[in-house]
Amino acid sequence: MSAGRDDQITLVAFMQASNVSVYSGSWRYPSSAPDFLDLRYYQRIARVLEEGTFDLMFFDDRLAMPAIYGGSPAEAVRYGARPVKLDLTAVLGAAAAATTHLGLGATYSTTYYPPFHVARTFATLDHLSGGRAAWNVVTSVNDAEARNFGVEQHLAHDERYDRAEEFIEVVTQLWDSWEDDAILFDQKSGEFADPAKVHEIDYQGKYFNVRGPLTVPRSPQGRPPIIQAGQSGRGQQFAAKWADLIFTADPSQAVAQEHYKGQKELIVAAGRDPKAVRLLPMVYAVVGETETIAREKENILLNELVHPLASLTLLSELTNHDFSGYSLDDEVTDELINSISGIRGLVQGVKRHLGGGKVTLRTLANHRATLLQGPRFVGTGEQIADQMQDWFETYSCDGFVLAATHFPGAFEDFVRLVVPELRKRGLLRTEYAGSTLRENLGLARPASSFAPTAGEAADA
Fold this sequence. Notes:
Number of domains: 1
Helix content: 40-55%
Shape: globular
Number of helices: 17
Strand content: 5-15%
CATH superfamily: Luciferase-like domain
CATH topology: TIM Barrel
Distance between the termini: 57 Å
Largest sheet: 8 strands, parallel, barrel
Structural class: alpha/beta
CATH architecture: Alpha-Beta Barrel
Order of helices and strands: EHEHHEHEHHEEEEEHEHEHHHHHEHEHHH
Number of strands: 13
CATH class: Alpha Beta
C-alpha cells in the first residue's frame, strides 16, 4: 500500500483505574492481572506503552458506580461492570514516576469539580511530569453521579455544555495567570517573583465567578492539551473550538470517514487549523502470533466473558435510563428512542454499522459493553498494521485510541507484534520527538493570554 500521508499515526492507550478496561469482560480473561489496586500495576502498563512510543495513556472516569439499572449498583458490583474507579491524581503520579516521555491524561468533570481545582491539578501534574499532562473534558453522564455530589438530578444536555464553555474559559485563564518569566528567584534581593506578571483573572460569568490567580506557576506546556469526546452536534462544536485530540466512537470505517470529514469542517469553521486537531476513534486490537490464534482469542472475548446483565447495566448508565423492566430481546422502537434523552445518536450509529434494520436492546447493550463497542482489528501484527494503515491513509482518522481487551496483555501483545510493523512502514515513530506531550504531538506551546504582544513589549 502506497503512503498517502506524510504524517504519522497518533497512538493513545485507553485506560481505566479499575478492575476492568472499557470492555466489561476484561477482568475474566484468563491472563488478566488482578493487582489493579497496586500502583505497580499502572506503572508496568505505562512502561510497556512508553516502549511502544505511544503518545499518551489517558484514563476514563466516572464519579459513581453504575446504579441506574434497577435503581441499585448491585448488578454492577455482582458482574464487575466498572464498580471500581480509583482517584486519578495518585494513579497518574505513579505513572509519571515510572516514565519519562509518555503523555498522561485524565478525565475530570466540568459538572462536579470546580474549575480552580481542575486547573491546579493539571498544572501540578504538568510540572511534576516534565510537561506530559492532558485533560479529558467531560460533562458527566447521569443522575447516579449527581447524587454523589448532593444534587438530585443531572443537568440537561445543553446546560451542561453551557457550563462547560465557561468552565474551560476559567481553566485556561488560570493556566495563563502566571506569565512564563514571572519567577525571578533572586535570593540576593529577596524578590521571588514579579507581581506585575502574576494576574488575577476576575472571571465573572453565569456559572462561575473566579478571582485567581492560580497557585501554580505556568507549566511546561503552558496549557496541557485538551481531549474531548462529544458525539452530539453540540459536543462536536465544543470539540471543534477547544480540543487538541478528539476521541470518537465510530462503529465502522464508513461512519468514521463521514465523521472525520464533518468534524474537520467544524474545526475550520471555528477558525482553527484542522491539521492541528487529531481525530482518534476507539478500536480494539486482538493480536495473535497467527491468525488462527487471534480468531480463537476473539471468539472467547466475544462470546464467553460478558454477562448480559453487565451490558444492560452499562447501557442504563450511559443513557440515564433504567432498563431493568425490559427484555434483552425487546426492539428499540421510535417510541423508546423518543422517551430517552441522548439515545438517538447511539441507535443511529448502531443501525449504520449493521446496515439498517431492527435493533434490539441486546444488540444496543452489546455495542456499549463488548467488543462490538468499537471497530476491532484481528490477526497477526502484520494484518493489524494493514488495517490501521488503511484507516489512516483513507482519512478515516489521524490515529487510534486503543482499548484493551485485558490488562496488561493486550498492550503487551500490541507493542511486541504490531508496533514493529507500523515502524517498518514509517507510520509510527521509533523515538520520541521531545520531552513534552505537545512536542510529541507537534502542537505549538500557546503564549499566555496575559503576556504582552510583540508591539506592547517594544513600547515598554
